[in-house]
Amino acid sequence: MRSVSIIGVGCTSFGEHWQKSLRELVAEAGIQAVLTSGLVGKDIEAIYGGCMASGRFIAQEHIGALLADQLGLNPIPSTRVEAACASGGVALRSGFLSVASGAYDIVAVGGVEKMTEVSTSEAAIALGGAGDQETELFHGASFPALYALMARKHMHDFGTTEEQMALCSVQAHKNGMLNPNSQFHKEISVEEVMHSGYVASPLKLLDCSPITDGAAAVILCETEKARKMGIPAVEIIGAGQASDSLALSGRKSLTEVAATKKAAEIAYKQANLGPKDIDVVELHDCFSIANIMAIEDLGFFKKGEGGKALEQGKTALNSEISVNPSGGLKCGHPVGATGVKQAVEIFEQLLGKAGKRQVKDAKIGLAHNVGGSGATAVVHIMRRL
Amino acid sequence: MTNGNLPLIWRKFPERYLLQGNRCETCGTCFFPARQVCPNCRRKGKLVQMEMPRQGKIITFTEVFTGPYGFEFETPYFIAIIELSNKARLLSQVVDSPREKIKIGAKVEKVFRKISDIDPEGPIAYGYKFKVVG
Ligand SMILES: [Zn+2]
User: Which residues form the Thiolase N-terminal domain (chain A) (predicted)?
Assistant: First the structure.
């Protein structure tokens, strides 16, 4: 396999973009990515675009063709990738593999979701498609309910507390204050999370990620070519992906996301690195408990000790391991875009361009994207070229 | 949504009314719902139809306060992952049980209930729920 690097990134602000359509969002992120790479449109040989549920959200399918069309890049091949909330991360890995294989030298990877065109109830139906319709949604299990089932088990087995989970949101919002693209710029307290009302016990409203519009894009280039161009770049040194049972009831353990462990194992092995080598991580914290399970499953802390690590501030900005300097998913989760936005954040962190939320001396970064309640997970490890 | 569709409701009668799943005779694992391929044995597996036991225990649970489409007016209600006595696991609502008895490890048994009634003109979906025993 050939080495692959990211040479350009683009991201819209995350939020309720009532004045912008999906096509305007993808054009904004895509054009920004091409401009920062120093390339021109005709250098791009193919597109991979992550999008989870545009059919449900805006009644528009065929997003692959739409991307190439809107970016003025016809007739290059353009492929939509869907893996629920991991659509962006899987699109990134698909683009990575297409360059690593030698099929292309330069490809664009995008992710987008336009979620606020429908009511919250309709959005929940769209997101519910990430679970098992016949055995979960049919019985009234919402997505917060599925993560709540994992949270309750984690609390039971390891003594994790609701306050520790609340800290995930408090920390995310604190970091989000420093990210101009974040959906929210407001610090919250543990008390506010605790009093925000149960959605599905023990998870409360402020334990959940919001409904968001947004798009992100990166330009991938074969590494030798990127070196010759002499522009700042970030090399993808590990890319792992794994699957698990669609329904939560089919998982061997309810206190871990086995697909995350498997994807991380593959990525660490490719990169010849371990959890201790990671300086900054953008992980998939759709619900607070997902943050706690991820820092354990990615190997930063032992199983069951995630809650305590949060309490001790070990995952704060510029601490033991800087988790979600962007604010993570709590500061906006346009489902198809999230996995690509994570790569954008790691790119900026590793090049020292992350402004006030910059992790000091960040040399190695990791992006972790999960689909559904854990049926898909993708992990990318990156370093400055 | 898959709740209100007539052919689907009809097709699901054995699974949702009788808790019909299957069992792999090669490795002894029981599956609910029935699987087309045993993930342990694949082509060496031999799947035979069987009704699941009605008894099990709660592995984990949650009380839902914001219900998804079709369940908005049912809240609050309990959802649990239940391990049946043959080790097969499923997700179900827990009903007709005092709140303080719904906890991890509690013994439950299957009951037959209405699940949802989304379309006023359409069919009503029935199926299994569980209640705490003892
Ligand atoms: Zn078998």
Answer: 5-223
